Amino acid sequence: MRPNTLAEAVERIQAGASRDIMLAEFVDTFNLAPTSAARYATIEEEPALTNDERLDALVGALAEYLAKQHRLGRVPTWVSGSARYLDRPWHTSSMFIDWTREFLTDAIREYLTFASPGEFASRNIFTEERTLRRARAPQPAKT
What we know:
Elements: H1 6-14, H2 19-32, H3 36-44, H4 53-69, E1 90-91, H5 106-115, H6 118-121, E2 125-126
Parallel strand pairs: 1-2
């Protein structure tokens, strides 16, 4: 079952669910919301801080990115809290990473630095240009 809010997705991650799966399922929830108000409601509540600096910054970037990409007219105020920003750069991409060694070349780091959406780059998170493209699209109803 998909999380209804970003805060709920973070709760599930803290309880042991896969970060990648929970965030993708949350993006599905966001995208399937029928109105802008319903979409905003999914990001309005501040997710609890997790003591994982990367996750805390990532959810701030995600909420701001979704609000701006979908022109919701406002961004939740919690996204600008200092805990939602990283002190050191984090270059991340499942396309270019060797998960066994977490190895990124200088060229890939340069690409990610250039291509990252502003909502992520401003938090020192450098990722792919279309960072959320792997979220699943609506599934047809099974009969």
